């Protein structure tokens, strides 16, 4: 009897580790070890175009180089600006579409419009960027042809800095807003209709009802969308690489494309690893600051 009880208590203690073990091993091998290895490489003078015998300890010189590189500093500024603009528009447009589809006027046709709106989510980012690149073509693109038909001049969407940045924002919004819309639509379904009826009886208009009832009740959903979209937009790579390739010049280079080109186009693995680790720290800082703001707001 004692042996059976001891075996049961032992299995109770070890069972969680048995179930969690494979997942933890998976995370360690595919996430933690690459981060540690990249951190190690960031202290080396390591160039892919040179023999392995030239690899040597480089100290903090890679970090000094990458933090004084104008392209890298410019990519940080543009990536942060891009993230703020895109996430703000994601929230505004996604919430507007969710409110529209949740309204009584769109009740019958909401399923059809939801299907249409979520189509961009089904495409890979590279495919999306390729489609938009064809549409933005200065000669044969459908967008410029429509502008000419309406009496406007053609626009060079990719070769001009401001137009290229505007194009990237449009493409990212087109692909990411449906996700925000679906989350907000699900959030709106959780708000009791009785609260709206009470507010209507008290004479509150729709704007007052939205800010007084809807927004406070779906605050957690809003925080979820903003946090996910911030992390996604900071890591944007494939759309930029396909649509503008960082051009014109380096004006649309994001942190991801700059790190990639430093490591693999210019073969400087040490500097690329240093940039990647700085990028990792930046994402952690932004995430922690945002989570702290959310907690502070929820306590208030």
Describe the 3D structure.
- Belongs to the binding-protein-dependent transport system permease family.
- This protein has a two-stranded antiparallel sheet with strand order 1-2.
- α1 (2-41) packs across α13.
- The protein is mainly alpha-helical.
- Helices cover 74% and strands 1% of the residues.
Q: Shape from CA axes? A: globular
Stated plainly, the CATH topology is called MetI-like fold
CATH arch. level architecture: Orthogonal Bundle
Mean of the pLDDT scores?
86
Number of domains: 1
Helix/strand order, N-terminal first? HEEHHHHHHHHHHHH
Q: What's the number of extended β-strand segments?
A: 2
Largest sheet: 2 strands, antiparallel
* Uncertain segments: none
Annotation field: number of helices: 13
Q: What is the CATH C-level name?
A: Mainly Alpha
Strand content: under 5%
Tell me the structural class: mainly alpha
Q: Ends: how far apart? A: 55 Å
Across the major sheet, the strand order is 1-2
Give helix % range.
Answer: over 70%
The CATH superfamily turns out to be MetI-like
Gyration radius from CA atoms, angstroms: 25 Å
For this entry, give a set of tags.
300 residues; mainly alpha; MetI-like fold; two-stranded antiparallel ribbon; 13 helices; 2 strands; MetI-like_sf
List the helices and strands and how they pair.
Layout lengths: L1 H40 L2 E2 L10 E2 L3 H8 L1 H33 L7 H8 L7 H11 L6 H8 L11 H29 L3 H9 L4 H12 L1 H16 L3 H6 L11 H11 L3 H31 L1
Antiparallel strand pairs: 1-2
Helix pairs in contact: 1-13, 2-13, 3-7, 3-10, 7-10, 10-13, 12-13
């Amino acid at each position: 009897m004692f042996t059976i009880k001891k075996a049961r208590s032992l299995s109770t203690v070890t069972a969680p580790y048995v179930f969690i073990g494979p997942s933890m091993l998976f995370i360690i091998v595919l996430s933690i070890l690459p981060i540690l290895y990249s951190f190690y490489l960031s202290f080396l003078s390591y160039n892919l175009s040179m023999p392995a015998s030239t690899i040597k300890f480089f100290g903090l010189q890679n970090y000094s180089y990458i933090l004084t590189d104008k392209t890298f500093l410019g990519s940080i500024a543009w990536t942060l600006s891009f993230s703020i603009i895109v996430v703000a528009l994601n929230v505004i447009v996604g919430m507007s579409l969710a409110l529209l589809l949740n309204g009584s006027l769109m009740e019958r046709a909401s399923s059809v419009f939801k299907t249409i709106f979520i189509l961009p989510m089904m495409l890979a980012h590279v495919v999306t960027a390729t489609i938009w690149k064809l549409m933005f073509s200065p000669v044969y693109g459908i967008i410029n042809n429509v502008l000419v038909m309406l009496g406007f001049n053609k626009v060079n969407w990719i070769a001009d800095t401001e137009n290229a940045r505007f194009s990237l924002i449009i493409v990212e919004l087109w692909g990411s807003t449906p996700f925000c819309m679906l989350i907000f639509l699900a959030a709106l379904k959780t708000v009791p209709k009785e609260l709206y009826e009470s507010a209507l009886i008290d004479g509150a208009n729709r704007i007052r009802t939205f800010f007084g009832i809807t927004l406070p009740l779906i605050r957690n959903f809003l925080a979820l969308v903003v946090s996910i979209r911030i992390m996604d937009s900071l890591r944007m790579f494939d759309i930029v690489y396909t649509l503008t390739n960082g051009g014109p010049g380096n004006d649309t280079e994001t942190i991801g494309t700059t790190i990639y080109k430093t490591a693999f186009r210019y073969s400087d693995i040490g500097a690329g690893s240093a940039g990647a680790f700085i990028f990792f720290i930046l994402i952690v800082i932004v995430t922690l600051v945002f989570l702290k703001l959310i907690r502070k707001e929820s306590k208030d």
